[in-house]
Amino acid sequence: MSKKRKKNKSLSREIGLEIGAVCGKHFIKLEHLHYGYWTEDMDVEIFNLHIAQEKYVELLISHIPDGAKTILDVGCGMGQISRKLLDKGYKMDCVSPSAYLAECARKLLDDDVTIFECFYEQLETDKRYDVVLFSESFQYIPPKDAVAKSLSVLNPGGHMLICDIFQTEAEGRCGVSGGHRLKNFNAVMKDAEDALELVTDIDITENTAPTIDIECDLFRNVGLPVMGLVEKLMRSRHPWLTKLIMWKAQKKIDRMHKKYLGGDRTGENFKKYKSYRLFLYKKK
Ligand SMILES: C[S@@+](CC[C@H](N)C(=O)[O-])C[C@H]1O[C@@H](n2cnc3c(N)ncnc32)[C@H](O)[C@@H]1O
Predict the structure, then answer these.
(1) Whose Cα sits closest to atom 24 in ligand 1?
(2) How close is the Cα of 32 to the center of ligand 1, in Å?
(3) Distance in angstroms between the alpha carbons of the first and the last residue of the chain
(4) Is residue 34 lining ligand 1, measured as CB closer than 6 Å?
(5) Using one digit for the tens of pLDDT, what is the confidence trace for 138-156?
(6) What whole-number distance in Å separates Cα of residue 103 and Cα of residue 11?
(7) 95 by DSSP, 3-state: which?
(8) Do the Cβ atoms of 105 and 96 come closer than 8 Å?
(9) What would the pLDDT profile of 8-22 be if each residue is shown by its tens digit?
(10) CB-ligand 1 contact for 97 (6 Å cutoff)
(11) 174: which of 100, 160, 192, 273 fits an S-S bond (Cβ 3.0–4.6 Å)?
(12) Among candidate residues 25, 35, 43, 46, the one with its CA nearest the CA of residue 214
Protein backbone atom coordinates (compact mmCIF):
# COMPACT_ATOMS: atom_id res chain seq x y z
CA MET A 1 0.00 0.00 0.00
CA SER A 2 1.37 3.47 -0.90
CA LYS A 3 2.23 5.93 1.90
CA LYS A 4 -0.59 8.24 0.78
CA ARG A 5 -3.21 5.44 0.83
CA LYS A 6 -1.95 4.29 4.24
CA LYS A 7 -2.26 7.85 5.57
CA ASN A 8 -5.78 8.23 4.11
CA LYS A 9 -6.81 4.88 5.62
CA SER A 10 -5.54 5.89 9.08
CA LEU A 11 -7.30 9.24 8.77
CA SER A 12 -10.67 7.72 7.78
CA ARG A 13 -10.33 5.17 10.61
CA GLU A 14 -9.70 7.99 13.09
CA ILE A 15 -12.66 9.98 11.73
CA GLY A 16 -14.83 6.82 11.94
CA LEU A 17 -13.86 6.43 15.61
CA GLU A 18 -14.58 10.11 16.25
CA ILE A 19 -18.05 9.83 14.65
CA GLY A 20 -18.68 6.70 16.74
CA ALA A 21 -17.64 8.62 19.85
CA VAL A 22 -19.92 11.59 19.13
CA CYS A 23 -22.99 9.44 18.24
CA GLY A 24 -22.48 6.91 21.04
CA LYS A 25 -22.02 9.61 23.65
CA HIS A 26 -25.02 11.71 22.66
CA PHE A 27 -27.56 9.05 21.70
CA ILE A 28 -26.93 6.20 24.10
CA LYS A 29 -24.63 7.75 26.69
CA LEU A 30 -21.67 5.57 25.78
CA GLU A 31 -18.40 6.65 27.35
CA HIS A 32 -16.13 4.08 25.72
CA LEU A 33 -15.11 2.96 22.25
CA HIS A 34 -14.74 -0.76 22.88
CA TYR A 35 -17.01 -3.79 22.43
CA GLY A 36 -17.81 -4.33 26.08
CA TYR A 37 -18.05 -7.63 27.95
CA TRP A 38 -21.43 -9.37 27.96
CA THR A 39 -22.23 -11.82 30.71
CA GLU A 40 -24.86 -14.56 30.49
CA ASP A 41 -27.32 -12.75 32.75
CA MET A 42 -27.48 -9.71 30.44
CA ASP A 43 -30.10 -9.08 27.75
CA VAL A 44 -28.34 -8.24 24.52
CA GLU A 45 -29.80 -4.85 23.73
CA ILE A 46 -28.39 -1.44 22.95
CA PHE A 47 -29.31 0.12 26.29
CA ASN A 48 -27.22 -2.51 28.09
CA LEU A 49 -24.11 -1.78 26.03
CA HIS A 50 -22.84 0.77 28.55
CA ILE A 51 -23.13 -1.87 31.28
CA ALA A 52 -21.18 -4.35 29.12
CA GLN A 53 -18.54 -1.67 28.62
CA GLU A 54 -18.24 -1.08 32.37
CA LYS A 55 -17.85 -4.84 32.91
CA TYR A 56 -15.07 -4.90 30.33
CA VAL A 57 -13.25 -2.08 32.16
CA GLU A 58 -13.60 -3.99 35.45
CA LEU A 59 -12.10 -7.06 33.76
CA LEU A 60 -9.17 -5.01 32.44
CA ILE A 61 -8.51 -3.40 35.80
CA SER A 62 -8.59 -6.76 37.56
CA HIS A 63 -5.61 -7.81 35.41
CA ILE A 64 -3.37 -4.90 36.29
CA PRO A 65 -0.55 -6.53 38.23
CA ASP A 66 -0.15 -5.84 41.93
CA GLY A 67 2.42 -3.19 42.67
CA ALA A 68 1.97 -1.31 39.38
CA LYS A 69 1.83 2.44 39.90
CA THR A 70 2.34 4.10 36.53
CA ILE A 71 0.35 3.27 33.38
CA LEU A 72 0.54 4.45 29.79
CA ASP A 73 -2.91 4.15 28.15
CA VAL A 74 -2.17 3.72 24.44
CA GLY A 75 -5.09 4.85 22.26
CA CYS A 76 -6.99 6.29 25.22
CA GLY A 77 -10.15 7.13 23.24
CA MET A 78 -12.28 9.56 25.24
CA GLY A 79 -10.14 8.95 28.35
CA GLN A 80 -12.72 7.10 30.45
CA ILE A 81 -10.52 4.11 31.27
CA SER A 82 -7.71 6.43 32.34
CA ARG A 83 -10.16 8.41 34.47
CA LYS A 84 -11.16 5.20 36.28
CA LEU A 85 -7.52 4.27 36.78
CA LEU A 86 -6.67 7.74 38.13
CA ASP A 87 -9.54 7.37 40.61
CA LYS A 88 -8.03 4.08 41.72
CA GLY A 89 -4.75 5.83 42.47
CA TYR A 90 -2.65 4.96 39.39
CA LYS A 91 -0.52 7.63 37.78
CA MET A 92 -1.57 7.89 34.14
CA ASP A 93 -0.30 9.16 30.82
CA CYS A 94 -2.02 8.62 27.47
CA VAL A 95 -1.30 8.34 23.77
CA SER A 96 -3.88 9.60 21.29
CA PRO A 97 -3.32 10.22 17.58
CA SER A 98 -6.77 11.81 17.31
CA ALA A 99 -6.87 15.52 18.19
CA TYR A 100 -10.63 15.30 18.80
CA LEU A 101 -10.40 12.32 21.18
CA ALA A 102 -7.34 13.82 22.89
CA GLU A 103 -9.37 16.95 23.59
CA CYS A 104 -12.24 14.89 25.10
CA ALA A 105 -9.70 13.05 27.28
CA ARG A 106 -7.99 16.28 28.34
CA LYS A 107 -11.30 17.63 29.68
CA LEU A 108 -11.83 14.48 31.72
CA LEU A 109 -8.33 13.85 33.09
CA ASP A 110 -6.18 15.66 35.64
CA ASP A 111 -3.75 18.38 34.58
CA ASP A 112 -0.69 16.29 35.37
CA VAL A 113 -1.69 13.57 32.87
CA THR A 114 0.42 13.94 29.74
CA ILE A 115 -1.49 13.14 26.57
CA PHE A 116 1.02 12.41 23.83
CA GLU A 117 -0.84 13.45 20.72
CA CYS A 118 0.79 11.06 18.25
CA PHE A 119 0.74 7.51 16.94
CA TYR A 120 2.34 5.13 19.44
CA GLU A 121 4.95 4.14 16.86
CA GLN A 122 6.08 7.78 16.83
CA LEU A 123 6.08 8.33 20.59
CA GLU A 124 9.24 9.87 21.97
CA THR A 125 9.61 10.18 25.72
CA ASP A 126 12.11 9.61 28.51
CA LYS A 127 9.31 8.54 30.85
CA ARG A 128 9.02 4.89 31.92
CA TYR A 129 5.90 2.98 33.01
CA ASP A 130 4.95 -0.13 35.00
CA VAL A 131 2.15 -1.02 32.55
CA VAL A 132 1.48 -0.20 28.92
CA LEU A 133 -2.23 -0.68 28.28
CA PHE A 134 -3.75 -1.36 24.86
CA SER A 135 -7.53 -1.45 25.09
CA GLU A 136 -8.71 -2.15 21.55
CA SER A 137 -5.87 -0.04 20.18
CA PHE A 138 -3.36 -2.81 19.52
CA GLN A 139 -5.09 -3.72 16.24
CA TYR A 140 -4.08 -0.34 14.76
CA ILE A 141 -0.37 -0.70 15.46
CA PRO A 142 2.01 -3.10 13.68
CA PRO A 143 2.75 -5.71 16.41
CA LYS A 144 6.53 -5.53 15.97
CA ASP A 145 6.46 -1.74 16.43
CA ALA A 146 4.15 -2.02 19.44
CA VAL A 147 6.45 -4.55 21.11
CA ALA A 148 9.64 -2.58 20.38
CA LYS A 149 8.14 0.67 21.63
CA SER A 150 6.68 -0.99 24.73
CA LEU A 151 10.02 -2.56 25.63
CA SER A 152 11.58 0.89 25.41
CA VAL A 153 9.02 2.62 27.66
CA LEU A 154 8.47 -0.17 30.24
CA ASN A 155 10.32 -0.32 33.55
CA PRO A 156 12.15 -3.60 34.22
CA GLY A 157 9.49 -6.11 35.32
CA GLY A 158 6.78 -3.94 33.73
CA HIS A 159 3.81 -5.36 31.80
CA MET A 160 2.07 -5.05 28.45
CA LEU A 161 -1.70 -5.49 28.89
CA ILE A 162 -3.42 -6.06 25.55
CA CYS A 163 -7.16 -6.55 25.12
CA ASP A 164 -8.21 -6.71 21.49
CA ILE A 165 -9.56 -8.56 18.47
CA PHE A 166 -7.37 -10.93 16.47
CA GLN A 167 -8.11 -12.85 13.29
CA THR A 168 -8.33 -16.64 13.38
CA GLU A 169 -7.26 -18.84 10.46
CA ALA A 170 -10.86 -19.86 9.59
CA GLU A 171 -11.52 -19.68 5.87
CA GLY A 172 -14.31 -17.58 4.35
CA ARG A 173 -15.73 -14.07 4.68
CA CYS A 174 -16.04 -12.68 8.16
CA GLY A 175 -17.74 -9.35 7.50
CA VAL A 176 -16.04 -7.78 10.51
CA SER A 177 -12.77 -6.06 9.82
CA GLY A 178 -9.96 -5.40 12.25
CA GLY A 179 -7.42 -7.28 14.25
CA HIS A 180 -4.01 -8.69 13.50
CA ARG A 181 -3.80 -12.34 12.50
CA LEU A 182 -3.34 -14.23 15.74
CA LYS A 183 -0.80 -16.46 14.03
CA ASN A 184 1.36 -13.45 13.08
CA PHE A 185 0.98 -11.92 16.52
CA ASN A 186 2.09 -15.18 18.16
CA ALA A 187 5.11 -15.30 15.84
CA VAL A 188 6.09 -11.75 16.83
CA MET A 189 5.72 -12.61 20.51
CA LYS A 190 7.76 -15.78 20.02
CA ASP A 191 10.57 -13.68 18.54
CA ALA A 192 10.34 -11.45 21.60
CA GLU A 193 10.29 -14.31 24.14
CA ASP A 194 13.73 -13.44 25.49
CA ALA A 195 12.33 -10.05 26.52
CA LEU A 196 8.65 -10.75 27.26
CA GLU A 197 7.04 -13.58 29.16
CA LEU A 198 3.37 -14.50 28.73
CA VAL A 199 1.55 -14.29 32.07
CA THR A 200 -2.14 -14.39 31.09
CA ASP A 201 -4.10 -15.34 27.97
CA ILE A 202 -7.90 -15.25 28.22
CA ASP A 203 -10.31 -15.74 25.33
CA ILE A 204 -13.33 -13.42 25.70
CA THR A 205 -14.71 -13.81 22.15
CA GLU A 206 -18.08 -15.18 23.40
CA ASN A 207 -18.48 -12.17 25.69
CA THR A 208 -17.72 -9.54 23.05
CA ALA A 209 -19.54 -10.99 20.00
CA PRO A 210 -23.07 -9.75 20.93
CA THR A 211 -21.99 -6.17 20.21
CA ILE A 212 -21.75 -7.02 16.50
CA ASP A 213 -25.44 -8.01 16.36
CA ILE A 214 -26.39 -4.80 18.17
CA GLU A 215 -24.38 -2.71 15.72
CA CYS A 216 -26.11 -4.30 12.69
CA ASP A 217 -29.56 -3.86 14.26
CA LEU A 218 -28.74 -0.22 14.86
CA PHE A 219 -27.75 0.31 11.24
CA ARG A 220 -30.85 -1.49 9.93
CA ASN A 221 -33.34 0.14 12.28
CA VAL A 222 -31.87 3.60 12.79
CA GLY A 223 -29.04 4.35 10.35
CA LEU A 224 -30.86 3.30 7.18
CA PRO A 225 -34.21 4.98 7.91
CA VAL A 226 -32.46 8.21 8.99
CA MET A 227 -30.33 8.23 5.84
CA GLY A 228 -33.47 7.65 3.75
CA LEU A 229 -35.30 10.53 5.42
CA VAL A 230 -32.38 12.92 5.02
CA GLU A 231 -32.17 12.00 1.33
CA LYS A 232 -35.92 12.56 0.92
CA LEU A 233 -35.69 15.97 2.54
CA MET A 234 -32.70 16.98 0.44
CA ARG A 235 -34.35 15.77 -2.78
CA SER A 236 -37.40 17.92 -2.06
CA ARG A 237 -35.22 21.02 -1.54
CA HIS A 238 -32.23 20.54 -3.85
CA PRO A 239 -33.04 17.74 -6.32
CA TRP A 240 -30.05 18.26 -8.60
CA LEU A 241 -27.52 18.69 -5.84
CA THR A 242 -28.90 15.59 -4.09
CA LYS A 243 -28.67 13.60 -7.30
CA LEU A 244 -25.03 14.62 -7.64
CA ILE A 245 -24.20 13.82 -4.00
CA MET A 246 -25.95 10.43 -4.21
CA TRP A 247 -24.13 9.61 -7.43
CA LYS A 248 -20.80 10.53 -5.81
CA ALA A 249 -21.57 8.64 -2.59
CA GLN A 250 -23.20 5.58 -4.16
CA LYS A 251 -20.15 3.34 -3.93
CA LYS A 252 -19.70 4.17 -0.24
CA ILE A 253 -23.41 3.57 0.44
CA ASP A 254 -23.29 0.23 -1.39
CA ARG A 255 -20.27 -0.75 0.69
CA MET A 256 -22.13 0.13 3.92
CA HIS A 257 -25.16 -1.91 2.83
CA LYS A 258 -22.94 -4.86 2.06
CA LYS A 259 -21.02 -4.49 5.30
CA TYR A 260 -24.01 -4.26 7.63
CA LEU A 261 -26.77 -6.00 5.70
CA GLY A 262 -24.85 -8.47 3.56
CA GLY A 263 -25.40 -11.18 6.19
CA ASP A 264 -21.69 -11.77 6.93
CA ARG A 265 -21.43 -9.34 9.84
CA THR A 266 -22.98 -11.36 12.66
CA GLY A 267 -22.03 -12.34 16.19
CA GLU A 268 -21.84 -15.97 15.04
CA ASN A 269 -19.36 -15.14 12.27
CA PHE A 270 -17.39 -13.00 14.68
CA LYS A 271 -16.93 -16.05 16.91
CA LYS A 272 -15.69 -18.07 13.97
CA TYR A 273 -13.30 -15.59 12.36
CA LYS A 274 -12.18 -13.51 15.32
CA SER A 275 -10.58 -14.21 18.62
CA TYR A 276 -10.94 -11.50 21.23
CA ARG A 277 -8.11 -11.90 23.73
CA LEU A 278 -6.75 -10.44 26.89
CA PHE A 279 -2.99 -10.92 27.02
CA LEU A 280 -0.65 -9.89 29.81
CA TYR A 281 3.10 -10.01 29.11
CA LYS A 282 5.86 -9.29 31.61
CA LYS A 283 9.12 -7.65 30.62
CA LYS A 284 11.93 -9.92 31.81
C1 LIG B 1 -11.45 1.39 19.43
S2 LIG B 1 -10.71 2.81 20.13
C3 LIG B 1 -10.44 2.30 21.81
C4 LIG B 1 -10.40 3.47 22.74
C5 LIG B 1 -10.21 3.13 24.22
N6 LIG B 1 -8.94 2.53 24.47
C7 LIG B 1 -11.32 2.26 24.71
O8 LIG B 1 -11.05 1.10 25.05
O9 LIG B 1 -12.47 2.73 24.77
C10 LIG B 1 -9.09 2.77 19.41
C11 LIG B 1 -8.16 3.86 19.94
O12 LIG B 1 -6.86 3.65 19.37
C13 LIG B 1 -6.34 4.88 18.92
N14 LIG B 1 -5.32 4.59 17.91
C15 LIG B 1 -5.47 4.25 16.61
N16 LIG B 1 -4.28 4.07 16.02
C17 LIG B 1 -3.33 4.28 16.98
C18 LIG B 1 -1.89 4.26 16.99
N19 LIG B 1 -1.19 3.93 15.90
N20 LIG B 1 -1.26 4.59 18.14
C21 LIG B 1 -1.96 4.89 19.26
N22 LIG B 1 -3.31 4.91 19.31
C23 LIG B 1 -4.00 4.61 18.18
C24 LIG B 1 -7.56 5.66 18.46
O25 LIG B 1 -7.34 7.05 18.42
C26 LIG B 1 -8.56 5.27 19.56
O27 LIG B 1 -8.39 6.11 20.67
Answers:
(1) 75
(2) 11
(3) 35
(4) yes
(5) 999 999 999 999 999 999 9
(6) 17
(7) strand
(8) yes
(9) 666 666 666 566 656
(10) yes
(11) 273
(12) 46
